[in-house]
Amino acid sequence: MASTRRAVLSLYSRLFRVARTWQAQTGAAGDTETERKYIVQEARTLFRQNQQLTDPESIWKCIKECEARIEIGLHYRNPYPRAIYLPPLGLATQKGRRLRAQQRLRKQAKPIYLQSQDET
Fold first, then answer.
1. CA–CA gap between residue 93 and residue 53 (Å, rounded)
2. Among candidate residues 60, 69, 58, 54, the one with its CA nearest the CA of residue 14
3. Would you say 51 and 4 are in contact if contact means Cβ atoms under 8 Å apart?
4. Does residue 77 come out as left (phi exceeding 0), alpha (psi in the -120 to 50 range) or beta?
5. Kind and range of the H or E run holding 70
6. 26-59 as b/e: b if 16+ CB within 10 A
């Protein structure tokens, strides 16, 4: 438990370091400030949302998601989550087994960096 606590706290402080040094791709001061505020707000929201987790497996899953989002954001210089370009339930009819199978496949195919995002 102590190792997960240490990992979560170091990840939380890493997010704030990233936000403090973040520079927008456009170079505009307004864009940089907006993106910095987004990073801080998103970190606080997701950490508070998951603070009641006690299962080590689910905690490590959230840690992996956060690390993936940080690396993708730093690589692409974009703090916002990357989009999935397949419309929800676009391939299935609206009834029966095909719908349930499509929902199950979509849930399994969701990338790790979008696990905390709600289905839209």
1. 36
2. 69
3. no
4. left
5. helix 56-76
6. eeeeeeeeebbeebbebbeebeeebeeeeeeeeb
120 confidence band (pLDDT: 50, 70, 90)? very low
Each residue's pLDDT tens digit, 76-88: 999 988 766 655 5
pTM for the whole thing? 0.73
The answer to whether 39 and 22 have CB atoms below 8 angstroms apart is: yes
CA proximity to 51, closest of 112, 3, 8: 8
- Chain centroid to CA 27: 24
- Residue tagged 């990840």 (tokens): 11
Output the six-digit token pair for 31: 């864009």
Packing angle of the helix pair 29-49, 2-21 (nearest 10 deg): 160
93 within 8 A of 99, measured Cβ to Cβ = yes
The closest of 115, 23, 7 to 73, measured between CA atoms, is 23
The end-to-end CA distance of the chain, in Å, is 34
